[in-house]
């Protein structure tokens, strides 16, 4: 991975560590006022949906205003998260705890929306799976490490706020350095703000529904009661296994997107079996740990799927976070269904089986659209191998980001007029870039250029 990609992933993980553990600390505080099921509904449903609200408003704001893309935005949001989270954690009454916890949840959504959008825009296609895997793996392991201090009671100790403050300042500082470098990556205000109103195609709603079903199904199968005892602690410990699954899934997606998508669906099969395997306290902990390894596949895929869709149109970059929004909504629905069905294991398994069949039907409809059978008449092979070969080709020829954008259209047979319309530039600008591309690749015309890339593709 390139150094910038690694640092952006570490930054995302750092944000995830302290916001995620602060979230858990607030959940511990809620146990002082509410029973286990109520706390579960508040944290996994109400707070989760507030995060979705934060994602949605942040997406809209980033589409409409350059201010939302400024490097200072995540620092301000982090300050609000820490202040509201601390107020909720230290509160001695139920209502203020809920109110401040709600504010914290909303802004966790906005700051993660910014971080995910920047990873999508700045991290190359061939490294994005590993980047998202690192982000959530670092966050999961970090939460685990913090929870182990003070005899496992660190997250309910008010002195943990000092740690959160240090991590928040560190992430804000690193963010100022990385997010402030607007000359790197693809994140440009002029390219990013499209003058055309974005309309979702047939793929985006279908993909949103798939991710939603993934997490309804997985959260019903993995449902557990959050309380102050050992079950909650085992759930925190399972984050270590989750991290393994995340890193493995990230590497697999970068190697082959089709394999990553298939693995995400197949991994849900274990979620279908997990309720039947939880026969006692010992096996429940083991099954949950293994299930978290498998859960890494859909967790990474929810990020990859929408970020790949958004990458091809900078006006859609904020929509890269729709995968997380779909997952959170699915988590909320799955949690309610899990609480409702946990007293009747037979019904729970039957519901999961029906959902698995439905998910499979929708998933393979999407899969056939995303990875169609390639016809011999197509100009170039489709799929993630082409994307990786394309990035290598651009690096070898020394093309800049503008030339790379034009090249992608050239290789698919687009005319100068079509390229100009797609990139919202003058046709003369496209001609200028085409001339420089042909010069850099030592090709005399477009036919030679396509053939040169074909040779590169088949020799990669």
Description:
There is one protein chain. The chain has 460 residues and is mainly α. It has 2 domains: 355 residues, MFS general substrate transporter like domains (Growth Hormone, Chain: A, Up-down Bundle); 75 residues, Arc Repressor Mutant, subunit A. The chain has 19 helices and no strands. The longest helix is centred in the middle third of the chain and has 31 residues. The protein starts with a helix and ends with a helix. About 8% of the residues have low confidence.
Fill in the keyword field for this structure.
mainly alpha, 2 domains, single chain, Growth Hormone, Chain: A, 19 helices, Arc Repressor Mutant, subunit A, about 450 residues
Give a brief description.
The chain has 19 helices and no strands. It is mainly alpha-helical and 460 residues long.
């Amino acid at each position: 991975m390139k150094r910038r990609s690694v640092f952006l992933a570490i930054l995302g993980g750092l944000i995830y560590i302290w916001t995620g553990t602060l979230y858990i600390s607030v959940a511990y505080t809620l146990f002082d006022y509410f029973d286990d099921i109520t706390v579960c509904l508040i944290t996994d449903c109400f707070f989760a949906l507030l995060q979705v609200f934060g994602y949605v408003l942040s997406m809209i704001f980033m589409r409409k205003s350059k201010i939302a893309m400024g490097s200072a935005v995540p620092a301000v949001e982090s300050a609000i998260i820490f202040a509201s989270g601390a107020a909720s954690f230290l509160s001695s009454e139920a209502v203020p705890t809920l109110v401040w916890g709600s504010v914290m949840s909303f802004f966790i959504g906005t700051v993660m929306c910014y971080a995910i959008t920047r990873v999508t825009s700045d991290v190359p296609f061939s490294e994005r799976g590993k980047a998202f895997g690192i982000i959530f793996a670092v966050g999961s392991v970090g939460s685990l490490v913090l929870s182990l201090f003070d005899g496992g009671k660190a997250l309910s100790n008010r002195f943990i706020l000092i740690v959160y403050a240090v991590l928040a300042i560190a992430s804000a500082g690193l963010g100022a350095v990385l997010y402030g470098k607007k000359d790197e990556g693809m994140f440009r205000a002029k390219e990013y703000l499209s003058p055309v109103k974005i309309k979702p195609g047939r793929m985006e709603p279908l993909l949103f529904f798939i991710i939603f079903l993934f997490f309804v199904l997985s959260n019903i199968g993995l449902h557990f009661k959050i309380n102050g005892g050992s079950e909650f602690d085992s759930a925190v410990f399972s984050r270590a296994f989750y991290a393994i699954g995340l890193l493995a899934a990230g590497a697999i997606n970068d190697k082959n997107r089709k394999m990553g998508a298939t693995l995400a669906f197949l991994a849900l099969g274990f979620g279908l079996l997990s309720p039947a395997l939880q026969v006692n306290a010992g096996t429940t902990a083991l099954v949950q740990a293994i299930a978290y390894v498998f859960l890494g596949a859909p967790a990474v895929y929810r990020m990859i799927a929408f970020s790949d869709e958004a990458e091809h149109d900078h006006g859609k970059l904020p929509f890269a976070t729709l995968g997380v929004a779909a997952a959170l909504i699915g988590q909320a629905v799955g949690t309610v269904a899990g609480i409702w069905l946990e007293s009747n294991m037979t019904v729970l398994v039957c519901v999961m089986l029906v959902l698995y069949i439905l998910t499979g039907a929708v998933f393979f409809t999407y899969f056939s659209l995303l990875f169609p059978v390639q016809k011999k008449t197509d100009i170039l092979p489709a799929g993630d191998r082409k994307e990786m070969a394309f990035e290598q080709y651009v690096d070898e020829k020394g093309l800049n980001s503008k030339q790379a954008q034009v090249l992608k259209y050239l290789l698919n047979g687009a005319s100068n007029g079509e390229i100009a319309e797609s990139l919202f530039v003058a046709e003369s600008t496209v001609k200028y870039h085409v001339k420089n591309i042909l010069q850099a690749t030592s090709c005399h015309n477009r036919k030679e250029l396509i053939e040169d890339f074909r040779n590169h593709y088949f020799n990669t």
